[in-house]
Each structure stands twice: as structure tokens, then as C-alpha cells.
Amino acid sequence: MKHPILQEIGRDFIGITEALGSAALLLRSVFFWFFRSGFEAGEIVKQAVKIGVDSLAVTALTSFFTGMVLALQMGSSMRNLFNEPMFIGTMVAFSMLKELGPVMTSIVVAGRAGAVVTAEIGTMQVTEQIDALYTLGTNPTRYLLVPRYIAFMVMLPLLTVFADFLGVVGGCLVGIVKLGVSPSVYLEDILTYLDIADFMHGFLKTFVFAFMIATVSCYKGLSTKGGAEGVGKATTEAVVASMVLVMVLDYFISALLVAVGI
Amino acid sequence: MIEIKNLVKSFPDRCVLDDISADIKEGELFSVIGPSGIGKSTFIKCLIRLLRPDSGRIIVDGQDIASMTNEFALAKVRRSFGYLFQEGALFDSLTVLENVAFGLKYLTDIPGSEYPRVVKEKLALVGLKDVEHLKPAELSVGMKKRVSLARSVAAEPKYMLYDEPTTGLDPVTTGMVKDLILDMREKLKITSIVVTHDLNLALEISSRVAMLYAGEFVEVSEPSRFRQSEHKGVKEFMEISHLSRK
């Protein structure tokens, strides 16, 4: 006898398996076209602007204020514990470089650029523009996906470096204005206790996040069905999935990097 | 020549094309008619392998594209086709010039510096001028269709596929599109395949008309003979379309 709950679980399981299979086929196609033909230079630049340059302002604001609030909270905690705001530069830079810089930038990019990519590809899918690409002698993966993958993989790490820097600057500003820490002490705290491995720990993660956001956004866009409503649904699903996966992947990559000593 | 042999295409809920066979000869204007949702677009998408048939053969100039797996070989065969999509399928982010030049870039060896001239020519062919700088959102439905047609024929295809070319158009634009289809066939010697629910259009312009009914071609004949068909599906469709059998 078929139990409705079992049927529901079965349907969900089949759905997830199909989605994973389709995503794997999409990745195969991306790798195939990445190595098999010339790049669409114009499209790559266009996407780099959309994904990277257009995300600069949001990234700047979020990272700058994150650095500021980190310095404020840590400074007041340190003051309560030791009567002095100690190691503010170390703690702000450590948090920004290893975790908050890459994770927050990835979330900003997933929410802004990832949504744009899914909505754009989704609209093209429901209005037959993807089919039109086939009929006009090019492959959608080559023309649409490869440039977006490249743009995400290049721009997200760059944005993260920018976010790390601004976060540290924001922390410094609060250190000077609110906590009475001099810029030289703040900088010395950073240079004494942090090394390049701390920066690399966060920087390396962004490549995995970029690849994941590109895959989720493109996959959701290509699997869009059902007109404007479908585009909205696919975009929401892509953003939610990317954000959750950033958090989940962050733990596992961090664990791996710690295990290998980075 | 396009030979369609025992074409079958199903979706999870139903079989849309059930053992369809037809030969489309060079220079012919072959129309497939039937009510909306019967599988006409599925048929035309199978012809260019935008959809993969479940079984059967589609032989285009001697090459069976139904079973073709090599992406590059498939792309090569697709180069013989132009496709006018139901809603035009113009690229929103590109201007009219870039849209029409798109096929030139990927399907021809014409140098980039020649694109503006060629695009102007193709737009003139569909009765448009001074629209090169506009984006698709700034065009009317009829203009979109004509730009789309200019884009489809820019690379001078051997075969032209029209998916519901007059849907959503007013009578004047419908007449214009009808003339354009005939022009493309006469001026450019393109073999044309039209899928439409507009029986009037099909009977007026086609050399042969096929009726898609319950997944099969129940009648394939010249317009004059088509009108006399005794098949129940054809008769019903003629009545719904308010067309006289004479």
C-alpha cells in the first residue's frame, strides 16, 4: 500500500537526485566548453562589471561597518575584562580575513549578482532566447555560462580582498575615535600576530564559494519554468540555496584548511 | 530535403508525436496546422533538435540529426536552418543591430566591419529602417517579429522554420508577415516549414498542408485537396476556423 508520507519523501528524493544529476551535466558542459573553444571576451568583461564592479558599493558598506562593529564590541569586551582595549587590530583583522570578509562578501554577491544571473538566464529560458542561441550557431553554455563562471571566479576573490581591507580600516577608525587606540598600535597588532596563511585561509575559500554561487545561479536559471512567476521562484531559490551553501561549505572548507595547516 | 521517418516524442504526461512521417522537398512551403497545445512547436523543435525525439529519424540533406550526439556536428546541421520564434526571442540586452548581427558572427565569415551594412539590408528586406539602435523593449510586437525574421535570414539559411508566425498580430501585420514568408521563399529560395493554428494563412501560402491530430499527421495534401478532406479532425478544424470547404 502506498503511504502518502512515503510517496512525498520518495518524490522529494527523486527531485533532489534529478537536480544533482542535472547540475552534474551542467558542470560537465561548462568544463567541456571552457577547454574546447575561445572565450567570449566581451561577455566576460560585461559579466565582470555586473558581478564585481556593481557589487562594490554594497560590499564596501557591509565590510566597513562589520569592521567597525567588530572593533566596538571587542574593544568594549576587552575593556571590561582587562580595563584596556587590547589586541583590537589582531581580532578585527583575524575575523575579517579568515571568516567575515569571505563569507559576507559571498553572501552579498549571492544575493545581488547571483540573483541577477538567475533572473537573466531564467528570463532567457522562458522567452526561448536560450533556444535562439542554438539556432544562431552558438552554445548557451559557451556564450552564457562560461563567461559568468569566469567572472564569479575572478571578481569574488578580488571583492573579498577589498572587503578585508575596508573591514580592517573600519575597525581602525573605531579604534581611534571610540577606543583611543593609536593607528600604529592597531597596525602593529595586525602585523605581529597575523601572517599570510591567515589571509590565504579566507582567500582560498572564496574560489569555492564563487564556483558554488555560479553553479547554483546558472543551474536555477536554466531550469526555470513557467513565465514571470517561475523566474521569481527560481531567483529566490537560487539566492536561498547559495546563502545556505556558503555557510555549510564554510565550515567544511575551514576544517579542511585547518587540517592542512592553513 | 528533410525526411521525417516514424518520429515519436513523448512527455511524462502524454505522447505528443506518435509515429510521424513526412518528406519536405526543396523549395517547398510546408505548413503544419492544428489547435494550440497539440504538439506543433514540439514538432518544429524536433526538426532542429532543440528537442530530442524518443525515436524515429530526421534526415536533413542525408544526415540523421535525431540520433546525432556530437555537439559540433549538430551545430553544423543547424547552420542550414533559420528559426522564427513565436515571441521573436530577441536578446533583450542587445540592440536591433546586435541582434541581427548575432547570427552573422557565428554562422558566417562576414567581417565585423560589414555588419552594419548587411544588417541594414536584412532590415530593409523585412520593411524596417532606422531601428538599428533600438532595444527590443522599444519595439512593437509586429516589429519584434520582423526583426526576428531579419535575424533568422541574415545568414541565408537553406531551411526556414516559422513557429506560429502570426500569433498575437493584428490583421495588417498578419498580412505583412504572410507576404514576408512568401517573399523569403521567392527571393531567397528558402524551403519553409510553418507551424500555425491559422488555417487561413496555411491554406493561402502553403504548397502542402499537414494536419496534426492526436499525435499524427492525419492529412497531408495540397491546399485545394486539404479543403476536401473527409477526416473528422480536419472537418472540425475547418468549421472552427470558419472556412468553407470550397
Describe this protein's structure.
The complex is a heterodimer of chains A (262) and B (246). With 262 residues, chain A is an all-alpha fold. Chain A has one domain. In chain A, 87% of the residues lie in helices and 0% in strands. Chain A is elongated and about 65 Å long. The mean pLDDT of chain A is 94. Chain B has 246 residues and is of the alpha/beta class. The longest helix of chain B has 18 residues, at 171-188. Chain B contains nine helices and ten strands. Chain B has a six-stranded mixed sheet with strand order 6-7-8-3-9-10, sandwiched between helices. In chain B, strands 2-1-4-5 form a four-stranded antiparallel sheet, with helices on one face. The A-B interface holds A 120, 123-124, 127-129, 131-132, 134-139 and B 45, 48, 50, 71, 75, 78-79, 81-83, 85-87, 89-93, 102-103, 106-107, 151-152, 155.
